[in-house]
Structures are given as C-alpha cells and as structure tokens.
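Re-running the complex after MR caught last week's input typo. The corrected sequence lines follow. Everything else is unchanged.
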Amino acid sequence: LAPYLRKFGKFTVPDFIGDRYYSQTARTVAVLWAIFICFTYVAGQICGVDVVFSRFLEVNITTGVLIGMSVMK
Amino acid sequence: MTVDRDIMVLTNPEIADLPAWVIALAAAGAVAAALSTYAGLLLVISTSIFHDLLKRNLAPNITDRAELFYARLAAAVAICVAGWFGINPPGFVAQVVAFAFGLGASSFFPAIIMGIFYKKMNSKGAIVGMLCGVGFTATYIIYFKFINPSGNISENWWFGVSPEGIGTIGMWVNFVVAFTVFKFTADVLIKFNNW
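Corrected-run output:
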C-alpha cells in the first residue's frame, strides 16, 4: 500500500483518510481510533519491558514499570 | 518470581541452559524491540493529540510554542496512562499486541483499501464502517476480557473465533457496513481519478 499512499502525498493514516474522503469527521474518527489502538499496543510493549526489568533486576512488576517509564522520560 | 507465559518466553534461553551471553543478548533484544516500538507509539499518540485533534479541530490559531507545550504534555500523560496499563495489564504481551492488530485491521484496513482501490466510496460509508468495525471488535474483546472473563472459552466464542482473532471478523463487518451505507448515500466525489 505504501506506493499508493506516497503517490497520494499523505503519510499518516488520519491525514490520508481525512483528505481522501473530504471529511473532518472521518479524520477525527481515524485519529481517535489511532490513539486507542496505540494505547493498546503501548500497553503490550510496556508489559514486555517490565517483565524483562523485573526478571533481571529482581524487582517486582510495579517497580519494573516505573523503571521503564523513567527510561522513556 | 511468578511464572507466567511472558516469563516463559524470556527464560527460554535459561531453561535451555545456553551460555550467559546468549541469555543477555536475548534480554537486550527484547528490551530494545519493546522500547523502540514504545517510543514510536508515544510519538504517534502525542502527535495525533496535539496536531490532528488540537490544531485541526479545537484551536487552529495556536502558536508554535503552545503547540510544543501541549505535545510534551500529551506525551507525559500518555506515558502515565501506559504505565497504568503496564501495572494492570489486560493480558499477556502477545495477546495485547494481537488485540492492537485486530483493532487496526477492523478500523483502518478497509478504509484505506477502499479509499485507494474503490474510488466511488464516500465519507459516510467509511466513517460508519470504521465506527462499526472497531465497535464490534472492541466490544467483543472487552466483553470477554473484562466483563465476563470466566466465559472466555471456545464454546462461547462467535464462529469459534477467540478475542485475539476477532479483528478478522471486525474487518468484514467494516467492509459490509461501509458498502451498505455507501449504497444508500451514494454521493460520488471523484477528484483523484488520475493518481
């Protein structure tokens, strides 16, 4: 799909959907779903990070999450 | 240490009695993969919030300085929310990632495919399709993961599809709803005929 999107000149999904369908509503819906999906995905990733930290630094999961968050910041 | 499926994946090299440097490499790989994805996603979240939502809809005349401030604020809030999810995870790592991909398949995939290959598709079809696709998928996942976790067995699943795989069905829901709405509201807007 990438060549088609590049031809269109839009690089984010909400931009493509908003401009292709000429609709602010479509763009807003796409943005909201994008944020929702990203949060789901981030939750999975941060679980992975804190499992590794809690295993190798021998702390509990909550501390692992806090370490992961401070690494990101 | 509690043993669960995530720990099993991580400790596989140890169980196999591989040398310490292999174990370390595997762990470093896991952290690197997770953190890079994490950074990218946080960037997407904060950009979506301040650029697409704030600047385009709520406050079009916002200054660059204020925009930067809100971007940082959005990233900080996103990290905190993500941390809350990390402490109270909705499932195992692979499961949560599967949910995210299922939601993605049921929302954007049909809208992008129809936007590119079916030039007559209109905005109402795409909007209602996205709403119904994600609505269906998210309801199915939330029902089986949070509202009725004890009923999460294969006898109760629709068509025998687990919550991890329901995005496939959500995708078809999206396609069918979009086409139905399109048939009733066909206002043809063709501008991008020659791209």
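None of the earlier attempt is carried over here. The helical segments of chain B are 5-15, 20-58, 64-87, 93-117, 123-147, 167-184. Chain B touches chain A through 66 residues (CB under 8 Å).
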